[in-house]
Amino acid sequence: MPQISNLRLLISSANHPRILSPLTLKPPPPPPPSLSHLFRLKHPFSHTQNPRFLFAAFSSSYSRKPRNIEQPSSLGRRNSSSKADNKGKMAMEEKGPTAESLGFNKRRAEGKDKNDGKKNLQLKVRKLNPVNTISYVQILGTGMDTQDTAPSVLLFFDKQRFIFNAGEGLQRFCTEHKIKLSKIDHIFLSRVCSETAGGLPGLLLTLAGMGEEGMSVNLWGPSDLKYLVDAMKSFIPNAAMVHARSFGPTVGSVDVSTASSGTSDDLYVPINDEVVKISAVLLRPRYSKVSDTTKEGSSELDDPLVGVNHLAENLLVRRMHSTAEFALKPGDLSVVYICELPEIKGKFDPKKAAALGLRPGPKYRELQLGNSVQSDRQDIMVHPSDVLGPSVPGPIVLVVDCPTPSHLQELSSIHSLTPYYSYPSEESKEMCKKVDCVIHLSSASVTCSTEYQQWMSRFGEAQHIMAGHQPKNIEIPILKSSARIASRLNYLCPQFFPAPGFWSLPQLKSLPSVSKTPSEFSSCQVTAENLLKFHLRPYAQLGLDRSGIPEITSRPKIIEELISEIPEILDASEHITQMLHGNNVTNGGSATMQANKVMIEEPWLHETALPSCLEGVTREDVEIVLLGTGSSQPSKYRNVSSIFVNLFSKGSILLDCGEGTLGQLKRRFGIEGADEAVKDLRCIWISHIHADHHTGLARILALRRDLLNETPHEPLIVVGPRQLKRFLDAYQKLEDLDMQFLDCRHTTEASLKTFESNEDKDVSESACVPSDQKNGSTLFAKGSRMESYWKRPGSPVDSAAVFPLLKTLKEILRDAGLEALISFPVIHCPQAYGAVLKAADRTNSTGKKIPGWKIVYSGDTRPCPELVEASRGATVLIHEATFEDGMVEEAIARNHSTTQEAIEVGDSAGAYRIILTHFSQRYPKIPVFDETHMHKTCIAFDMMSVNLADLPMLPRVLPYLKLLFRDEMIADDIDVATVAI
């Protein structure tokens, strides 16, 4: 491809002083045959080269933005298939290298491009419709099958939408079911924590990127909300998109009366208009009594179904029960939301209106709206009550989040809810407000208690929807499209795509907790399901509506459909199984004959010498699990970036942690297995501050904190760019994440060498961070055009804290069988990094020394010398390939790589295997690629698990994946947001 040739030509010009700029001179003689020759330099550079000049040639020639790359229309083009593009390619080849054909976006790398065309985000102002024809509440079932986040609830009106809670995965669920989040006006949080708000940053960024002006919403919650908003400001570029309003007492204030025996009558009214009145009742935990379920030695604490959330609740109760007076802590407050629709006016009687002297016309409408009018024929005022039948009270819905038994004590005695209880006596009936529906977000461990059931009975015949983590939903996948693709991949190649690790319902029924959790307590209680509705208007339809609940498709049905669509898949599955088990048929086997019909025999199928690091490797050494392989925002088929490096008995490491990472872990390993994986994490490494790479971090850390609360352990080390520290520091005011932060710049190769050389000495910051590393290593050396990229404002580093953290990290890695975790700077945004994981050498049974494997992860980047050098001799290079080969301009504009550029980097570095990931969501199932370049490469899919022992066979799987998706290699017509990539 021209851009690769241009890259070779450009960097080779650094070795020819007579060539001043490829922009002004004709191309020199033919370029070297590969990038390997150009980049085969001693790290960081050979003494015979001038690194400053070498990279200066790269940056000065290609720092300008290509023409038209920022035009929105260009982002949706399929450039590789247009005649105009082919002409453009020919022109580039004739003219030689140009700024438009390769390079990077310098402004984006320096963090300045976000100011270009800055959007003035304004709150949406909608014209309200007081006479709504349709209104309902609906369950958006985030968290049901994975039990990792709180469900969301949609309150729908003709012109307004309200969301209660925005846990991780909400965007992905709504995308699949075509629920337009752009219509949301208000988001309410029942608590402020990672469980209820983990999907909020990504949602806000998506809204901000919509349209020319972007969109903004109101955010409501208890006073803890300020901590969450402060934390998000560290990486959300425009704080105007967060119009946050909180209510309740100041967190940290001492409230003695509530702590002892008093009750709270705080009632806040965030919304009160002609469409709906939404009130909020705060629940504070009370500790005057110890519930039996929280006593030491309770078997419920060991019950796997109860889950870590309830375990954390009980531990919180124990900690706070020790004092009669206590200060409210962040996360203590919970909320009951009361949604009251206006009363439904009685039926209009035209005969009464005519008798009062009114002519048919606009005045009829005014009376129906509740306004008085002057009679046309009589000198009187006509009031609505004169012409309307009896009014019907408006429907009322409660959304209740009671997270712990101590909150239940407050809930049972709070006076603010008294008007909403039903009473048997006729005398008191007139004073009651009839509640039609109560949605319970509380976990089953709370709602199953006798006390909670008694409280529920106060609402009379109200419909109760149990939307907490109910056992019934454990087998129902939230993301049906993703589950369907996973089943098809598992059928084709189970070795690379293992079956999900969920419990089955029969397994659950054997647990003690299930026997004490009846599926239906009474006819008024139902278990929530995805997209279950409760109609509020029209009044004639008041009640439950199950018509929108997705049908459950069994795996056998999915496979039956697959075989019907692609009959060749039967033989392909058999052949791939034989191939992976070393039983490949070479002569006349029907499987081979059929397989040859569906795949092209390529030269790489007969390569190659096995790397020495794979000699004697076992299936218990290392496995790479691609949890998320998409970019920007979650989609139906691909979650955002996360890579789980499973070292089995030696623990695990996460490379990036986008939104929904915990849910993906649970889909891959099951609920129990994911808990074990989180407990065994040795380290989390984050490449850069974009939301699609780190917003799942708080949820993972909070879960680990709760799982290990009663076990002696050390805080988890999180390695990342220093902007991430600002986010984590701000967020930890909301909830303790039990972690220690280490800046990526302290884990570069030069920094680690300096650390090792000074390990037995007193270390200052200058010792920990060599002078070249302070400016970003050679890539951003002093005097280079990218120096300002590195020297961005950041929080000060306590050098005294860095040294012991590096020492701890070294010990953690050694215990995990690793020699090093090395960060290296790449070209994407300020403080963007790639990572190298190097295993320690080992000795086989004969005493032969076997070198350790090497896994390299590019993060998000343009091709650059540091990445090639870091990838030298890699066993596996996991490289982003956001764009197809025909979208070079877009790749440059966003500082990403195309498929071919990623492969060329791996080839030039001599990587044994290349795994491509981080695909634009314009490629919903499989990206566009040219198979002629895929000689050592494979395309990643969510949940793909690559064991080191299977690496030799990895490229052979690609033709079968093309077969599986042969009719689906054209991008869906989707709106791809660019704010987070």
Please provide a written account of the structure:
With 981 residues, the chain is of the alpha/beta class. It is 30% helix and 15% strand. The strands form 6 sheets. It has an 8-stranded mixed sheet with strand order 6-5-4-3-2-1-16-17. It is elongated. The relative contact order is 0.11. Residues 1-101, 253-263, 288-325, 511-520, 583-606, 763-796 and 970-980 have low confidence and may be disordered.
Number of strands: 32
Q: Give the mean pLDDT.
A: 76
- Helices, by number, come to 37
Question: Which regions are unreliable across 5 or more consecutive residues at pLDDT < 50?
Answer: 1-101, 253-263, 288-325, 511-520, 583-606, 763-796, 970-980
Helix content: 25-40%
Overall shape: it is elongated
Rg result? 31 Å
- Structure class: alpha/beta
Strand content: 15-25%
Distance, first to last CA: 25 Å
Main beta-sheet annotation: 8 strands, mixed
**Spatial strand sequence of the major β-sheet:** 6-5-4-3-2-1-16-17
